[in-house]
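Most newcomers find our protein records easier to grasp once they have seen one. Read left to right, the backbone structure tokens trace the chain's path through space. Once this layout is familiar, the rest of the handout is easier to follow. The record below serves as our worked example for the rest of this section:


***
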Amino acid sequence: RPDAASTRTAVAAVENPAEIGKITAAKTALDAKQYAQAVSLFEEIFSGNPSLKKELSEFYVNAALGQAANLIKTDSGKAEIFLLKALQIDPDNISGLSNLGYLYMGRKNYPKAIETYLKVTTLAPRLPDTFFNLGYVYAQLGRLDEAIQQRLQILQLTPSDYITHRNLVLLYRDADRLD
């Protein structure tokens, strides 16, 4: 999470008092977990002074991800909008990508879920949950060999994961590979 020093750096680069007020208000909204308001204020700031986008991008991404997290279970369409806003600024954001994959998986948009989760596995190859979700998606598509590979990847990361061992046995059974 961005700190006060990075806020001061961004504010120091601004000469217009109205912009300083907006930056302060946006940061205050973010700290108060009023994410939608923070996103809106940051977007106003960026439209008035695009050069501040670099200085304030981490705050904006955190606000967009926070709002997406608030919405992901109740309004996946709006959550997706906020996730995509965050990823437009920080395309390699693991949290944003993971949540987007989860959203696609929940909608049964499996091709997009696979694409998103594969990107996460490239960026963060030690996150078992990503391999779990990717394996689930492959299993839903009947791509059992790929689902098995994802479960094996989890076991490389967490060898004592009982649930993964059990799931692996079930996948082997379904793939007629119990030998």
